[in-house]
Q: What sequence folds into this?
């Protein structure tokens, strides 16, 4: 009896071991087949869409072969190099590099619009920053204001509009491309979207977030731009539905040398991005975006290096009338320098908003303080 009991125990143990080995083998097989993958929530979401929109490596794009890097020895930016104070593009002559400046949120409504109309001077918000902006090869701004005729003058409220004369301010500042995919685009209904887009196009601007890919060629490199809004749904502009984002990036990737995607996303008044921001950013990079630049939180947020690509989660405010806190009056302009199709240097230029919406460049200790805070938040994100 005792012997039979012992045999049964040994058989039970044997079957448990065999079952565990089989389960481990199945798990390993599924991992190898990319059915199950460990990692972050955003990495897991990637699996869901890869079968529908397979990632396209940036090296496979046809245009890139005709635009080689002029200085192949330069390495792509790292988190360390971004904040080391060294200009990695200094060795490249001005006629070889391409400088892209990306601003934070631009409000030309409420108190800012009231000041512009009062002074009859649409250049007023840009007076302290226009020289440096206009010197860049490409300036990409996020406009959070429908520009419509008959816009009433007011200094409060959350339904935005601005006088059409504000177009001249954007021209004065040297803005080239305007992202209109944001949570205030539809404040004046579809009619307001149509009027604003027409004004912008008639004024010589290209507009993202409305009609898909926008391209601009500078010194032989073809830059592509896409814009998406992920804060509420607005009429007339592209919403950041994951399949739609993947589809547009997939279609745009073979057509350009450099693909830049701007999102309007996240939660306001916080230094760290949400999981949704990370999800979208990682999806975009996985699908072929070379650079992700974004806004909406009204505070600047971290820069991240993901799969060798730069993601800037928020530049903060650039022109805005949120004068109640230091955080909403501070922002950064992203300076992204390319050599051919390669991003070789990233620098952030801090601004501080005076009056009711007129930024100035920070210098000295206040500039250092902002950059140190941005660095600290970026390292914090890296180690989460």
A:
């Amino acid at each position: 009896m005792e012997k039979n009991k012992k045999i049964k125990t040994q058989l039970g143990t044997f079957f448990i071991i065999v079952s565990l080995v089989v389960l481990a083998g199945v798990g390993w097989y599924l991992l190898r087949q990319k059915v199950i993958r460990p990692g972050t929530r955003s990495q897991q979401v990637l699996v869901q869409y890869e079968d529908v929109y397979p990632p396209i490596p940036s090296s496979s794009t046809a245009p890139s072969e005709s635009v080689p890097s002029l200085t192949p020895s330069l390495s792509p930016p790292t988190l360390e190099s971004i904040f080391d104070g060294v200009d990695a593009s200094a060795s490249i002559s001005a006629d070889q590099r391409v400088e892209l400046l990306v601003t934070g949120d631009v409000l030309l409504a409420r108190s800012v619009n009231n000041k512009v109309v009062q002074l009859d001077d649409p250049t007023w918000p840009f007076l302290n920053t226009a020289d440096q902006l206009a010197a860049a090869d490409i300036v990409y701004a996020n406009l959070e204001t429908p520009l419509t005729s008959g816009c009433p003058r007011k200094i409060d409220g959350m339904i935005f509009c601005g006088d059409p004369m504000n177009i001249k301010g954007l021209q004065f500042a040297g803005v080239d491309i305007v992202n209109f995919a944001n949570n205030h685009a539809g404040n004046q209904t579809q009619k307001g979207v149509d009027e604003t887009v027409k004004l912008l196009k008639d004024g010589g601007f290209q507009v993202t977030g409305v009609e898909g890919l926008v391209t601009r060629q500078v010194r032989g490199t073809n830059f592509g731009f896409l814009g998406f809004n992920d804060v509420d749904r607005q009429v007339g502009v592209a919403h950041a539905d994951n399949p739609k984002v993947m589809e547009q990036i997939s279609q745009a990737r073979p057509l350009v040398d450099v693909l830049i995607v701007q999102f309007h996303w996240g939660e306001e008044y916080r230094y760290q991005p949400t999981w949704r921001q990370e999800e979208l950013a990682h999806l975009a990079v996985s699908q072929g975006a070379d650079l992700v630049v974004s806004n909406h939180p009204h505070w600047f947020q971290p820069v991240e290096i993901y799969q060798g690509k730069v993601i800037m989660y928020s530049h903060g405010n650039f022109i805005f009338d949120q004068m109640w806190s230091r955080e909403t009056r501070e922002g950064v302009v992203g300076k992204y320098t390319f050599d051919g199709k390669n991003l070789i240097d990233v620098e952030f230029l801090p601004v501080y908003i005076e009056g009711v919406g007129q930024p100035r460049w920070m210098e000295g200790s206040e500039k250092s303080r902002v950059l140190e805070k941005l660095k600290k938040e970026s390292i914090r994100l890296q180690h989460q």
